Amino acid sequence: MELRHLEYFLACVDQGTFTAAARSLNVVQSAVSTGVARLEREVGERLFDRTPTVLMLTDTGRAVVGPARAALRARADVFDAVDGVRGDIRGEVAVGALVNVVSIDLAESFAEIHRRHPGITIAMRQNPRGSSGNIVGVRTGTLDLAFLGAYPEPIPGVTVHRLASEPLVLVCSPEHRLARAGSFVTTDLADERVIDYPPGWGTRAVVDRDIPSRRTVIEVADQFFGMSLAVKDFGVTLVPLSVAHLLSGAVAVPCADKPLMWDIAIAHSSTRTPSRPAQAVLDIVMELARPVRAVLGLRR
After folding, report:
1. Fold held by 1-88
2. Can you name the CATH fold of 164-263?
3. Which of 161, 158, 192, 157 is nearest to 177 (CA)?
4. What is the CA angle 265-223-137, rounded to 5?
């Protein structure tokens, strides 16, 4: 049994399609579909039911997921142990990403990781369910580390290290009544057309918690598109202050009655010891990923 076939299988489990799995692994789709088919022949059972839109795990497939993840972790542990004897820190670290992380200086952190440990490769993984998807990835072992936004506390099975915090602000057109008012209260959104983001995103979690009574007219998976709609007076949207500053013409209106705070953190499993490369990445991010003060001052 080839470990890369297990890797292809787990990528399909996590991504839902052969195409998405191949994209996440930077290989061609045919390699993934062929590898999974070979694994199915080897175990003598179908692992997925193929539908026109998504791969569905069979009972056998669900039974294989845990051992497959353990096998890949064992492979990583073998290389980690050998590198430890040599005094090297090398290997791939899978990191769950968030969209539009502006309030901390990740670029400097990653550049320093390369300077100190050139043998470390960082694989950024984007989950469509945002922070909630990243939490699942940390728990299941598909992610070594993950960034979280507006995460719940505590998270069973997950250790969280807070990096920065900033307010969510309302983005709207310059002519909007709330832009002219200079601030808003949460009850204002009951009568507004609200542009929302997908369930599972950290910003969505804050808005669901603090502004449950609102009129959502569209849900988009791109904060820049959401802000662009708001600037054109399609509706209003709530984003981190640092993100609001990135779009020309966007007006950032603060909330006057509640502290709509969006925290960003880095997390790892609390039930498994991070590999040496993952620990090195974690240490440097916590050392250097400080809040970028220049983007956190409110401006109009």
Report:
1. Arc Repressor Mutant, subunit A (1.10.10)
2. D-Maltodextrin-Binding Protein; domain 2 (3.40.190)
3. 192
4. 40
Buried b (16+ CB within 10 A) or exposed e, 237-258: bbbbbbbbbebeebbbbbbeee
What type of residue is 295? Answer: V
Largest CA distance in the chain: 67
Q: How far is 227 from 237, CA to CA, in rounded Å?
A: 7
CB 229 within 8 A of CB 218: yes
Q: Where are the beta strands (DSSP E) in 34-136?
A: 48-50, 55-57, 91-97, 120-126
Count of beta carbons in the 10 Å neighbourhood of residue 46? 15
* Alpha-carbon span 17 to 50, nearest angstrom: 9
For every one of its 300 residues, what pLDDT tens digit does the chain have, with 9 covering 90 and above?
A: 789 999 999 999 988 899 999 988 889 999 999 999 999 999 999 999 998 888 999 999 999 998 998 898 888 778 777 777 777 788 889 999 988 888 888 899 999 999 999 999 999 988 888 899 999 999 988 899 999 998 777 899 999 999 999 999 999 999 999 999 999 999 999 989 999 999 989 899 999 999 999 999 999 999 999 999 999 999 999 999 999 998 988 899 999 998 899 999 999 999 988 989 999 999 999 998 876 654 444 443
Contact criterion met (CB below 8 Å) for 202 and 151: yes
Q: How far apart are CA 33 and CA 21, in angstroms?
A: 9
Q: Where in the chain is the domain with CATH 1.10.10.10?
A: 1-88
Rounded CA-CA distance 46/23 in Å is 23
| Structural contact between residues 167 and 243, judged by C-beta atoms closer than 8 angstroms | no
Domain with CATH 3.40.190.290 in the chain: 164-263
